[in-house]
Amino acid sequence: MSVVLLLGPLFWILNSSDGVYGVAVTATVPVGVELTPPQNVTVISLNTNYTLIWDWNQSPGKTYDVTFTVQFVGSYELTDKKRDPEWVSVCERVSGRSCDLTGLDLHYLGMYVFHVRTDWNGHHSEWVQVEFCPERDADLGPPVKVELRPAGNLLDVTISEPRSSQDTVMKEHLSKLYYRIKYWEQSQDGKASEKHLNTTATFVTLPGLKAWTRYCVSVQSREDGEHRKSSIFSHPHCLETEGHLSWWQIVLYFLSALLVFLLLVLLLIWCFFYSCVTLKSIWFPSSQLPTHLEQFLRHSPRSHPPRLLTPHSELELLCDKVTICALPEVLVNQTHPCGTLMGLELNNSRHSRHGSGSSSSEDSGVYSAGGSSSQPSIKHQAQPLAMTFDSGPRKDTSHDVWTRALTAEGH
Predict the structure, then answer these.
(1) In principle, which of 116, 123, 216, 349 could form an S-S bond with 236, CB 3.0–4.6 Å?
(2) What whole-number distance in Å separates Cα of residue 342 and Cα of residue 400?
């Protein structure tokens, strides 16, 4: 006799005829473990973007690393009794609490059923279902963008239609879509009354506005079909209206523009004059070079053109100190490095005046001057040099003779 005991995931086989007792285990979980199914299953949707979300609370005192599986099917398949519905898996063994349904490309007017369950170690909880119809359950979003432009004392409003996940306008799914424009005058106390304007156009000019007044505008998407959808209002946009200018404003603007223009003209004239002066001082300096330097630069060979000195070229400059002193007015025969030459010049002049009668005394004077020990001889040493410049021709004087003598002695 054999007895089979089924206890949940475990079953026991007892065979008393041959004395063999066997035990078979078909799962690794304890007897009586039940997985909690997901809770609060719902679809979050905006236009054609859909996301299934849920909650899950595990049993008290137990910890499981569970996953979740999401499947869907068309509602019409559940009503067909001739065949079983074909569930399509969307998310399998996901550890999160959400599943993106946007990629399914659900028909906006279709009816669908989604169900989700908990999975752990080959065991599953019960399915939890939720029905979803995009036309009925999906929320409608506000306009993508609202732009304001002044039109005199009015405002032009440009509305960018809400778009689907395929980047198409929602008006393709909602034929009765229109917009509710709310606008009000912006004031410091914030008690301005609101005005509303319903329109199906995407470009509207708001009427009845004041000139030079700041207004705020917000737009809402609405659909008054079978399910009557409406979105939240868009973020307010504020802009000041314009208007006709009074005579004093026109005069003020004209004078301001004229003043700015004159300042710019004066600035340009000053810049031009300053540039001309600077260029002239560079290319045509007021300080002229000396005549001998100009002649040297003018007649210098082309192989050695004039050039500016570089910092390194200063090391190559060799300079001697030159002392220029004034020539005395009366030249006398006294103790002087060039006294012999001066005495010689004086004797020559006397000889020319008095003739041959006085030549002996003059010669003796020259001899005595040349042979006297009291007179210093001419030595080749650095002495103060008297330099004179004369551009016109003239006769030789005693100074010329003395200068030539010094030059010859130096050579």
Answers:
(1) 216
(2) 11
Q: Picking from 68-72, 296-300, 405-409, which range would have the lowest pLDDT averaged per residue?
A: 405-409
pLDDT band at 309 (very low <50, low <70, confident <90, very high): low
Contacts of 251 (CB under 8 A, 6+ apart): none
Looking at residue 135, its pLDDT comes to 94
Average of per-residue pLDDT values in the chain: 75
- The tens digit of pLDDT for each residue in 371-399 reads 434 444 434 444 444 444 444 444 444 45
Q: What is the mean pLDDT of residues 77-83?
A: 86
Give the C-alpha distances (Å, rounded to integers) separating 411 from 202, 249, 264, 396. Answer: 109, 93, 71, 21
Residue 286 CA to its chain's centroid (Å): 47
For 153-193, how does the pLDDT look when each residue is reduced to its tens digit (9 = 90+)? 899 999 999 999 999 999 999 999 999 999 999 887 766 78
The backbone region for 290, taken as left when phi is positive above 0, alpha when psi lies in -120 to 50, beta otherwise, is: beta
CA distance 149 to 203: 11
| Calpha distance 65→24 (Å, rounded) | 26
Dig out the tokens for 133 from the structure: 């119809």
